[in-house]
């Protein structure tokens, strides 16, 4: 995927550790699904994307604005958003549920993962 992708970033590891500690089985970087979800739980048909606040322009203020080449970066951010929406739509078509966990929300892992657990138990 894009060059900025890192496989084992801190936020993704937090999500995986949380699920692993609760006995959930999952796949990482599941390339067989649209958008290669960061964490996928095939048994539950739940795909989790862990979004970095900067790359996905979260409104939390953590991302900041690029100081140079503003148009270039804006176009790149827009493509990220478009791609995510396309992938999420494709996943839903395949019968998967899609959930986004924001990097900043993982400062409180329990809180951030509560909606995910709710989906897993539904
Ligand atoms: Zn954020």
UniProtKB/TrEMBL annotation:
SUPFAM superfamilies: Restriction endonuclease-like (SSF52980)
Superkingdom classification of source: Bacteria
Pfam families in the record: Vsr
Gene Ontology biological-process entries: mismatch repair
Example of a GO MF term: endonuclease activity
Keywords: DNA damage, DNA repair, Endonuclease, Hydrolase, Nuclease
Keyword DNA repair: yes
Family: Belongs to the Vsr family.
NCBIfam families, per the entry: vsr
Name of protein: DNA mismatch endonuclease Vsr
Organism, as annotated: Bosea caraganae
